[in-house]
């Protein structure tokens, strides 16, 4: 990615900027800075790392220096500083946009998965990108605490560190949904859901955790998730205490 050859298009207009700045000492105009941001954005979308783009501009700057008067050298360095800042800003802008698109796609997939929407074949293909094989049987654990949790919440991150620190990549999907913590794991990995239950129970200050029964197929995750939610709802209405049940000792809908 970052090491492949970069088109000289990303240097478009830079030689003219160097020449004019070296002669006059002026700062880059607003349009010139925006053009560098756009080029930095294009480079990021094309898969070029910022370091490679900056290296390309440094090479052109060095090539131009022998033809510049000594007094102009400081002006050129000042222009280079502005150009690099603008390139970095554009590069970061593209990366942020890509992350937002990825997060939107992830959220859409989670909704489709937990609510059983979308074509089963398409859903199974998308699930593989997130480490799930929906041809297998899965179970879903849901934790609810005294407050709503999102991906950036310290509680969410604490459970994530504990869960993946112990189990690594075992085709586990850990997300937040409607203010709750949700863990999806293959049904033959009871220890994952049990660990999730223990961690979530502890860091949510004794919050409730429910685990749905293992269910097969593309719709299995939605069925298990719905069962876990129903169990949580029942526990709240019955005012049950804040204990949780281990998967292997609980019946049908386990709490």
Architecture (CATH level 2) name of the largest domain? 2-Layer Sandwich
Beta-strand portion reads 5-15%
* Number of E-type strands: 4
Major beta sheet summary: 4 strands, antiparallel
- N-to-C SSE series? HHHHHEHEEHEH
Helical content band: 55-70%
Radius of gyration: 27 Å
Q: How far is the N terminus from the C terminus?
A: 48 Å
Q: How are the strands ordered across the major sheet?
A: 2-3-1-4
**Mean pLDDT, rounded to whole units?**
84
Indicate the CATH topology of the largest domain.
Answer: Alpha-Beta Plaits
Low-confidence stretches: 244-255
* Overall SS class: alpha+beta
Count the helices. How many? 8
The first-level CATH class name of the largest domain = Alpha Beta
Number of domains: 2
CA-based shape: elongated
Short description:
The protein is of the alpha+beta class and 255 residues long. It is built from 8 helices and 4 strands, in the order H-H-H-H-H-E-H-E-E-H-E-H.
How would you explain this protein's 3D organization?
By secondary structure, the chain is of the alpha+beta class. It has 2 domains: 8-101, no CATH class; 116-249, 2-Layer Sandwich (Alpha-Beta Plaits), CATH 3.30.70. It is built from 8 helices and 4 strands; from the N terminus they run αααααβαββαβα. The protein has a 4-stranded antiparallel sheet with strand order 2-3-1-4, with helices on both faces. A hairpin with a 2-residue loop joins strand 2 (173-177) and strand 3 (180-186). Residues 244-255 have low confidence and may be disordered.
